[in-house]
Amino acid sequence: MTIRAVVAGAGHYLPARVVENAEFEKTLDTDDAWIRSRSGIERRHFAAEDETTSSMAAAAADKALKDAGCAASDVDAIILATSTPDLTFPSAATMVQAELGMNAGFAFDVQAVCAGFVYALANANALIVSGQARRVLVIGAETFSRIMDWTDRSTCVLFGDGAGALLLEAQDAEGTPSDRGILATDLNSDGRFRDLLYVDGGVSTGTTGYLRMQGNQVFRHAVEKLASTATLAMERAGVTADDIDWIVPHQANIRIIQGTAKKLGLPMERVVVTVQDHGNTSAASIPLALSVAHGSGQIKQGDLLVTEAIGGGLAWGAVVLRW
Ligand code: UT7
Question: pTM of the prediction?
């Protein structure tokens, strides 16, 4: 017998404001055809002035709790993956804790940029299998619209805002690949690549700063590192690509998603793709994709999933889980 961290519910929140690619043609030397063909993005959501990472995270978490039939008081811990917390501190996770009316347990943020949700899942899994928590809300939420340089066409057309959440709960299991829940994780980072993707502000500058990215350099690392981390996680889980029902990748660029699926030997019919509607929502992209696919019935209980992500750091990783 073993303990597994099993998905009990999922939810997401997207701000009401939808911005189509054509919007950017008014202010930048860009066009819908370039954005669509180079990234696969068609539209993205941007937060309203009164919306924050924590307010969107709380809305997504509330839906995940309802989906699971649980109350906030049933939750032991909240892990919120974000690079755009409302304030430098306290953590956005503690703000979500207060907003949900959860008066016990503990909450903290995880900062691994676009790989944040994979890191958060691995941390939640460790808390659950070690018996330190029975139910953990794992959230990815971002307001990247607040760190965009709106004069930089190479970055500002790519990102969007939103939040997604999973409720994970401890369940007894056999300890085999047939179990539901998280079966394996793999995390990596390499700080030598910090200049490829970073924000040029923070405590050391006294400013919030703007996102800076050498997109084509990140691209060069992405497919290879994503395929190798996913392969390692599958090996650890005791499964092969043939067993996988769905790849749920970080939604940064359709060409990276296609390249990784091809390298793993999986057809695009088995890939969950939301990049066209959400853009790159960093740590929110995987839970958004999971919640949308769960809500539409695309992902069903018992399906075997591999999620993978790479972003600033560089930081990257993968999780294999049975829904
Ligand atoms: O989520 C975190 C990790 N991030 C990623 O995974 C992003 C990875 N990178 C990418 O998705 C792609 O590299 C981009 C979509 C960012 C760019 O695509 P690319 O095929 O790598 O293009 P590029 O950066 O090599 O730029 C090609 C050309 C350049 O013009 P020149 O130098 O060839 O004349 C750019 O100036 O495209 C130009 N360009 C644009 N043109 C029209 C850059 N941005 C735009 C734009 N509209 N918005």
Answer: 0.97
